[in-house]
Amino acid sequence: MDELIRGLKAGRPEAFERLVREFGDRIYRFVKRLAGERQAEDLTQEVFLRVHRSIDAYRPEGRFESWLFAIAGNLCIDLSRRRKPEASLSDVDEELSADRFASPAREPIEAAEEDERRRALLKAVERLPFEQKQVFLLREEAGLSFREIAEMTGCPLNTALGRMHYAMEALRKSLKAYGMQ
Amino acid sequence: MECNKFIDEKIGESHTPEFREHLAGCAGCARDVEELRDVRTLYREASTEKYRGGVPRVRRFGGWIPMAAAAAVLLMVFGLVLSGPKDDKTATKSESDNPPMVFFRVHLEPWGGDARYGNAFDDCWKKLEQLEKRQ
Description:
The complex is a heterodimer of chains A (181) and B (135).
Chain A: H1 2-9, H2 13-35, H3 37-54, H4 64-82, H5 88-96, H6 108-127, H7 130-140, H8 146-153, H9 157-177
Chain B: H1 2-10, H2 17-25, H3 27-46, H4 64-82, H5 93-97, H6 118-134
Helix pairs in contact in B: 2-3
């Protein structure tokens, strides 16, 4: 990671490519769930451009992932302030309807049930309140600790834990409501 | 509530022997943890979209770009100076009676007479001296 950061600070293109290769998918999924499908690709690009512009300001006191996802989170917050949240559930439907989870190795009924569970879970994540969703995604996509999440979102540790608790409860209930757990 | 709090603080973190001991003696927590693990596992299986936007093109300043820009500016300045006043043969009578005024004197050897620019500087310098003498 140190080598990547040194390369980014030196402005080396290969370091920038490595950054996108290593974090592109996670950042994309993070902003997609927070801001919606339509903006996700543009926002992901914007995250990387901002990293490029402000890498000199990065101080290695915290983890790089924490700094990176803070940029992504702030971009999503800025966007959500500028506009009403889009109906991104339809995007999820659209994305998931393309047999993304289909696996020819499984029995058709079993595979369909499994796909249905995953689809239901992603819909439930989309429905979470913004703060809960942010904590959940920082935990699951960014892999940050709760202390890092609390620092990044500017809330006490207990608040971050509480948001995660409510998010997990909501997800668990939504799966139960589908009779899937 | 005490148990839930305990789970919240530990879920996803490295499970300590203390936590495992607690789970062994608390059926409620064990069930909760199992369900929460299922949710997380399911989410990780479901969240698999790939970023297809490619690497954004980043403009880098440095290297040959500023050099090329500086060279272009220098060429423009030299072009303006060299193509400015005509010599005495082509000048009209009125122009020779009233030679063009030189508003500024440019120091043309900022690099101490770089061999690459030597001839051009010399030419410019001579032109300016001729103009000043005529005045």
